Structures are given as structure tokens and as C-alpha cells.
């Protein structure tokens, strides 16, 4: 035992990660009377919302829908202040939940898990940490988050840069003041788009380096509407259930018509009304075929481009900001507050990296194929090695010592996005092959946690020792995930959903597009049929 050991040597379950998923999993397994610890690399709980502290960080799901549903009193008591929750508010919500349910005592902070090895004789997992501690456990649950391994730009020179640099997902807790600074931001995904308007307010000069423009819609964020709050609170149970049965984990009225069967004026009017709702699903869910048919999609894409052209004064800049190379929605659309308007300020300039690619970071700035831009501070909003990055960063070994990295060399394979065959008693929360990042994450997290908890409970009451997906069930599910994805426009786009943002990463749609409701039904059926597709043994 190491002198500073933070973990016991034996547990029933180890959970890796103390975000929304790990904390809820802890709560559920502890309620079964199990010995459980959560191991967390960060210095505090919160996961995504602990790390992503960049200015303007905010969830793109509305506050009233981005919260746990398992504690009905909590959902009545908690008061969100804005339509969309900011990172500090979500973090204080997570802290409140942890305190309310006394979760912290079973969270081991500042401890990075480096390995998890399965031993076939004992049917136990040995989980190892960076400090050398080891713990044996029957179950190993990966609650590592889908967007938790930062990606830097694939150009040399960052170590030479003499100014300050920051990645949006590893932002100093004390914040950063860019007043009086010349700032460069590389990356225009959600993080860049949320941070840029705020950085622009402080910086004397802001240069935005854009590789691919994104579709972004306004949040129309503001103080939360108390009438809406009262209405939702009066029927929260019903709304939560509707969310669980929905396509993306937020209860909305599903579209019924094709975009192509509607008169262009009526269609425009509909998009306009939905634009004003200020959410992700409004325009995207206006018609049945926007994510499946290019011509239909183009009607929505052109509507959004029209908005960009209206907002941005300089026509050349507006054109650069207009996405034209992929279908609307197939890269995660962003929600912003004043993003496009920012480019109307004289001290903000946009550099199109498709025209003049990034070459290197220099001692004093950023060099493209055209010229060097001298800056004092550099912000990397360059995204993540999504969905598989955090799982593969851990040396996970299953039966026969097979590594997860070997198993997934052509892309992730799991049954139901929950368990890879050959890795008994190991579960992934919102793993690849489940709706995950293509849904309201909290709804999907709760589904997975509750399903895993029921399974573990069943194992214990039936005195079973191991559960693992069969190769056949895993293959059938993985094929199904691909087939459903292939019915949509998603696979045509280079996005992090496809692994396309990380050079060398296998290209395939990692999330399941069959819908949160149908997916949940499938998981329930599997459980009801004696965990069909899983091998359970004593
Ligand atoms: P994203 O959405 O992956 O955005 C990253 C951005 O950084 C995107 O514009 C990338 O361009 C750009 N990028 C990445 N690598 C480079 C290099 N090498 N050179 C230039 N530009 C680069 O990450 P976010 O953190 O913004 O958002 C992630 C999710 O969090 C978001 O989807 C929401 O679900 C919440 P690209 O598009 O790859 O050409």
C-alpha cells in the first residue's frame, strides 16, 4: 500500500469519473449497499462542467431539461436563473446534488486512472492509478465523459509560443483577463463560438482562425421565464417521461412533413418562427427529412446562411462564415449569444484557414501560409478526441489480456453502447453505439445508470459473477448502429461524431441515431428477455 493511498484495496465497483454520470452511478450503487468509489482525475467533481470553464461556457440544452430527474424534490426546489444554464450554475447544481446525497465522501479526487485489467480466474478488475495505487473490484464502470480528452491543433510550435496559451477545456480556475491583449482563437466549434464574443469585449485585437465554419443559432438567452418554470414544475414527471421516449432526449412535437412538400414561403415562415425559439431542435426538427435528404437540408441550411448574411455587415466575411460544404446539423450546430455580430467590430478579424492554412505556432503568434499574426495570448478551441479518447487513454485489458485499443483499432464496438464483448463486468456510460452525444446527455446518462444498476442488482440477487456481451450481439448491434447512421446525412460530413477531427482515427458514426426512446425500449427488452445478447455466469 502506498503511503498516500487514497483508495481501499477492495471494492465492489470502481467508477471512473465524477461528472453527472459517475455521481449518479455512485448514488445508485451505494443504494444497493455496495462498496463503491468514484476515481476522478480533476481536483473537484463536475466532469465536463469542472474542466470547461472558458468564458461564455454554457449548455446548449435548456436549463429545465438539463438536470437530474431521479430526485423529484430536488427538481422542484432547484431554481435555474437563465433559459440556458451557464457553466458556473451547472457546477453549483452538481455540488448541491453531491452535498444533498452525501456523495463526496466516496469520491477520490486528483487521481488519474491509468489501467484497468481483468483477471479471468478471480473475475475481478484491477484498477490502477497514476500514483501506483491498485484496487480490485467486481465491476468497473467508465463514466469518463465523451468530450474529455482535449485535442490541440496539428501544427508544430506551441512550445515556442512566448505568450500565454489556454485550451478552452482546461481553463484556469481564476479566469483570464484579456484586457489590452491581442488574442488569437483557433477553432470555431461550440467552445470557440461561445467564447469569442466575450473575449472580443476585452481584447484590443481578436483574430479568429476558422477551418470550417459552423452553423450557429442564437440562444435568445436571458432570465428564465417564471411562467414556463411553474408550468414545467407542475408536470415534470410527465415531461421527463416524454423526454425519455423522444428522439433526442428533449420532449418536442416531432415533425410530420417533408421540407420539400411545403410551399417555400410557408417553409421560410416556419423556419423564421423556429429560429426565434432559440434552441437546437427548432429549425433542425422543422421537417422529417432535414437530416436524411440533401435537398431538404439545403432549405434549412440556406435559411441559416441568410441569417448570417443579414447579421454580418461585410459581405466577404459573411460568406466566409457561411457553411457550404456539409449539411446543416451533421456537425453539431452551435448556439450563441452575439457570435456573428462580433465580426462587425473593427478590432475583430476572421482568417479562413481553408484559403490560407495554419502552418505553425511561432514564438510570437500564429503563422498561416500567407503571413504571421502576432498575438499576446492564444486560445485553443480545437475540440476533443471525442467518445473513444478517454476510454482508450486508459490501458483497458479484458479476457486473454486483449486491450481495448486492439479491439477497437477499426472503430469502437460495444453491445448497446454499454459493454464491449470480451470485457466482462465493464460498462461505459453514454458509450459509443448509444444515443449519447446525439441526445440530451442527462437523459441518456440516467437511462444507462439505471439500466446498469438493475443489471448489477440482478447479478447479485441471482449470485452471478460475470456478465458480458456475446460477439454476435455486439456485431449485430454495431451493424445496426451503422445502418441507421447510413440512412442519414451524418456519415457524409467530417465531424467529431465521425472521428474525422482526429488524424488517423477510424471514420465511423460513433453515436446511435435510432432515437432515445426506441433505444431505451430496446435496452428494456434486452433486460426483460433475461439480458438477451449477454452471457451471464455464476
Ligand atoms: P469542436 O466542435 O470539435 O470544434 C473544434 C474547432 O477547432 C473546429 O472549428 C475545428 O475545425 C477546429 N480545429 C480543430 N483542429 C484544428 C486545427 N488543427 N487547425 C485549425 N482548426 C482546428 O469542439 P468544441 O470544443 O468547440 O465543441 C465540442 C462540443 O462541446 C460541441 O459540439 C458541443 O456538443 C459541446 P474543423 O471543424 O474540425 O475543421
Automatic annotation (TrEMBL):
InterPro entries: FAD-binding_Monooxygenases, FAD/NAD-bd_sf. GO terms for molecular function: oxidoreductase activity, acting on paired donors, with incorporation or reduction of molecular oxygen, NAD(P)H as one donor, and incorporation of one atom of oxygen. Coiled coil: none annotated. Gene3D superfamilies: FAD/NAD(P)-binding domain. Keywords: FAD, Flavoprotein, Monooxygenase, NADP, Oxidoreductase. Its cofactor is FAD. The keyword Flavoprotein applies. SUPFAM superfamilies: FAD/NAD(P)-binding domain (SSF51905). Belongs to the FAD-binding monooxygenase family. PANTHER family: L-ORNITHINE N(5)-MONOOXYGENASE-RELATED. This is Cation diffusion facilitator CzcD-associated flavoprotein CzcO. It comes from Prauserella isguenensis.
